[in-house]
Amino acid sequence: MTPRLPMSQHRNGPALVRGLVDRDGEVALLLDVIQLTASGPEVEPLAAEVARLITDATATDVCFVHVLDDTEGSLTLAGATPPFDQQVGRVRLPLGVGVSGWVAKHRTPVVLPEGKGSDPRYVPIAELRGADFVSMASIPMEVDPGGLVGVLNVHTVERREFLQRDVELLRVIGRLVAGALNQARLHRRLAARERMHERFVEQVIATQEAEHRRMAGDIHDGISQRLISLSYHLDAASHAAGGGDPTEVTAQLTQARELLGLALDEARSAIGGLRPPVLDDLGLAGGLASLARSTPQIETEVELADHRLPEHVEIALYRIAQECLQNVVKHSRASSATLRFDVVDGSARLEVADDGTGFDTAATGGPGRDDVRGYGLQSMVERAELVGGHLDVRSQPGAGTTVTVTVPYR
């Protein structure tokens, strides 16, 4: 599709030094933007409407609104002039990469009247057809006090000298839009957190019911049956004693003792499924060390500080470490792992690292996805957040995986 004729031709004439819009147009545009930001739409509709307003009111041909994503490590295209609106959500730029990434990292506008292909900061994006446009201006969108929300880009088909007045106009629009976009992002995060919490509550209830059924089955099929057999052997021993047969008494009591030992083992196993008894006996550091020793399939180095935490936090960290080590054994093909725990600067920090095959976290959508190379991170993320913590996953193909849990601690 051929880009539209430049606004400088069909609206303001061919002069290249004229501003993007006259004074009256500036006021009208800013009023439109203010009215738009007060309407409180979601991120993508707001970004799309801003792009439309700018291109309709100024001598520009396309506008792109890139918004800082939740990881705060890259920009995502959130709004664009048609036909590029089809690329919304698909185009991503790490901070520092490309002109937009450079602007986001340095919080400084960039104006390129021509020759952008020779600018070392420029990275062509095939989906946005940069070669079709000669001039561009890239402006950071910030909220006070200096928080970056995204980057606003405008492009023209024909060469244009963007005046300082043009840059200031775009910066004002960027600031107005940034506040609304930031509120929309926070609202979306809150809604996502609420949905995650609802799912977690559902999972907890379902898990509890499944655990209750499992324990009832274990007690019925295991402990109860062994106790019934134990009662039988004790009765047999009693009859043998009444008949004066000491050999039979000894045999029955021996079998009864074996059954009692098995019943006790199964009872301990059932209790351990509810709360790891090792935490009561050894504390979190000792429990983690015991956990590492009980995973003989992989050599695990431990660096554990002896700090006690609230009971629910210790259980959460122990279970996360337990699942991490199971994942290392099942999926990572690692030869060794490291388990670290400490309390530093008011935060409890648990880290499990391996030297395995690793995976591409960006390609899988981050730790919120339950299908990340079989790691099943969703339950660990939710378990960490339930105790007020945060789980972070760092991994690259061939470079191993590190899972870090940080929980504020007072």
Automatic annotation (TrEMBL):
Cofactor or coenzyme needed: [4Fe-4S] cluster
Enzyme class, UniProt record, top EC level: transferase
EC number: 2.7.13.3
Subcellular location: Cytoplasm
Top-level taxon of the source organism: Bacteria
The entry's keywords: 4Fe-4S, Cytoplasm, Iron, Iron-sulfur, Kinase, Metal-binding, Transferase, Two-component regulatory system
Residue intervals of the Histidine kinase domain: 317-410
Keyword presence, Metal-binding: yes
Catalytic activity: ATP + protein L-histidine = ADP + protein N-phospho-L-histidine
MF terms in GO: kinase activity
Annotated InterPro entries: GAF, GAF-like_dom_sf, HATPase_C_sf, HATPase_dom, His_kinase_dom, Sensor_HK_TwoCompSys, Sig_transdc_His_kin-like_C, Sig_transdc_His_kin_sub3_dim/P
SUPFAM superfamilies: ATPase domain of HSP90 chaperone/DNA topoisomerase II/histidine kinase (SSF55874), GAF domain-like (SSF55781)
Principal place of residence: cytoplasm
Described function: Member of the two-component regulatory system NreB/NreC involved in the control of dissimilatory nitrate/nitrite reduction in response to oxygen. NreB functions as a direct oxygen sensor histidine kinase which is autophosphorylated, in the absence of oxygen, probably at the conserved histidine residue, and transfers its phosphate group probably to a conserved aspartate residue of NreC. NreB/NreC activates the expression of the nitrate (narGHJI) and nitrite (nir) reductase operons, as well as the putative nitrate transporter gene narT.
Name of the protein this chain belongs to: Oxygen sensor histidine kinase NreB
Organism encoding this protein: Pseudonocardia zijingensis
